[in-house]
């Protein structure tokens, strides 16, 4: 995380606060996540330098960059076009070559590049999306906030061993909701 300059992922007027441990607005009603939460979620993924990672909710691209520092290849989906475009320029400008970004609804993941050793969702659906579980590799790990809008959200760790899927409830969290025109397919 030290290698990723967080002040370059926020507007000029928020740069002075960029190294404080809290979320900041990035426009379009969205936020760059709290650094502590980026650390917790990244650690839970147990990435190695070969790992293929899927992220849902590129936002500023800060979490994407942290993943790119640790993993082999990072795929990230964002459904606000302006955020997707800014993140693309920013990550390219910082020299990240192992990142692919897609504009669209991440509820359905990115099946073309599946399976993923790790999946991270940085916006909250109200259930664990089945398409994401299906795109998890054997021994893969997914971390995501789950909770209905206006209700408490829980950070959940999903692990796959063959056909055995385990879900662990970890802690209370607060993320922006996962929105989109998806058909709901709860796992
Ligand atoms: N990791 C980002 C978090 C941004 S907030 C950061 O630290 O900057 C979560 C992001 O998820 C927002 O940018 C929001 O637009 C996006 N999002 C919400 N629903 C989505 C969906 N269905 N598909 C893809 N992205 C989504």
How many domains comprise the coordinates?
A: 1
Full CATH superfamily name = Vaccinia Virus protein VP39
Radius of gyration of CA atoms, rounded to a whole number: 15 Å
The helix tally amounts to 4
Strand content: 25-35%
Which structural class should the secondary elements be placed in?
alpha/beta
The CATH class name reads Alpha Beta
The global form is globular
Structure report:
The chain has 187 residues and is α/β, with parallel strands linked by helices. It has a single domain, classed as Rossmann fold (3-Layer(aba) Sandwich). The protein has 4 helices and 9 strands, in the order E-E-H-E-H-E-H-E-E-H-E-E-E. The strands form 2 sheets. A 7-stranded mixed β-sheet has the order 5-4-3-6-7-8-9. The protein is globular, with a radius of gyration of 15 Å. The structure holds S-adenosyl-L-homocysteine.
Please tag this protein with its features.
Rossmann fold; 4 helices; 187 residues; alpha/beta; binds S-adenosyl-L-homocysteine
């Amino acid at each position: 995380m030290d290698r990723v300059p967080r002040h370059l992922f926020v507007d000029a007027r928020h740069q002075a606060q960029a190294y404080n441990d809290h979320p900041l607005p990035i426009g379009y009603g969205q936020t760059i996540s709290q650094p502590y939460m980026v650390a917790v979620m990244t650690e839970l993924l147990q990435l190695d330098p070969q790992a293929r990672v899927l992220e849902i909710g590129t936002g500023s691209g800060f979490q994407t960059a942290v993943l790119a520092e640790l993993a082999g290849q990072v795929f990230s989906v964002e459904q606000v076009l302006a955020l997707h475009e800014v993140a693309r320029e920013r990550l390219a400008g910082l020299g990240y070559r192992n990142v692919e970004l897609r504009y669209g609804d991440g509820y359905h993941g990115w099946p073309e590049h599946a399976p993923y050793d790790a999946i991270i969702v940085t916006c909250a659906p109200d259930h664990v999306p089945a398409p994401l579980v299906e795109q998890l590799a054997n021994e893969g790990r997914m971390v995501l906030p789950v909770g209905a809008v206006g209700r408490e959200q829980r950070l959940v760790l999903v692990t796959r061993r063959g056909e055995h899927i385990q879900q662990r409830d970890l802690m209370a969290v607060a993320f922006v909701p996962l929105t989109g025109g998806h058909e709901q397919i709860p796992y």
